[in-house]
């Protein structure tokens, strides 16, 4: 069944491979995937790397669309962080002082 597919490089049943995909898609930590599946760190790393590569490629080929016809979407950069101790907000350029 897996001959000629991306599963050909793995000695896993398709359902085991999909289990890793499921955990990864739900942002389960890498080490938790290992312990829940019993797979080696190398196996989990190979699958996760392949997933990340596939998703990045798909996003480059089919960029996500924000908005729609006649809709202008503006995205501003935001810097998120903690305020330094002993520094007034006006010194940080926050315009709050």
Keywords, please?
single chain, 97 residues, mainly alpha, 3 helices, 0% strand, flat
Describe the structure.
- The chain is mainly α.
- It has a domain at 6-61.
- Helices cover 42% and strands 0% of the residues.
- It has three helices and no strands.
- It has helices at 14-25, 30-37, 41-61.
- The longest helix is centred in the middle third of the chain and has 21 residues, at 41-61.
- The radius of gyration is 22 Å and the shape is flat.
Average pLDDT, to the nearest integer?
Answer: 79
Count of helical stretches: 3
What is the radius of gyration?
22 Å
Counting DSSP E segments of at least 2 residues, the number of strands comes to 0
Helix content: 40-55%
Series of H and E elements: HHH
Please identify the structural class as seen in this structure: mainly alpha
| Major sheet description | none
Strand content: under 5%
Query: What separation lies between the terminal Cα atoms?
Result: 66 Å
Shape designation: flat
Uncertain stretches of 5 or more adjacent residues: none
How are the elements arranged and paired?
Blueprint: H1 14-25, H2 30-37, H3 41-61
Helix pairs in contact: 1-3
Summarize the structure.
With 97 residues, this protein is mainly α. The protein has helices at residues 14-25, 30-37, 41-61.
């Amino acid at each position: 069944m897996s001959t000629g597919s991306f599963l050909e490089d793995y000695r896993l049943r398709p359902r085991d491979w999909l289990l890793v995909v499921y955990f990864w898609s739900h942002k389960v930590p890498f080490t938790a995937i290992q312990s829940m599946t019993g797979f080696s760190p190398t196996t989990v790393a190979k699958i996760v790397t392949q997933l990340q590569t596939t998703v990045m490629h798909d996003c480059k080929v089919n960029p996500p669309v924000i908005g729609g016809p006649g809709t202008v979407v503006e995205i501003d950069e935001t810097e998120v962080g903690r305020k330094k101790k002993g520094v007034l907000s006006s010194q940080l350029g926050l315009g709050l002082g």
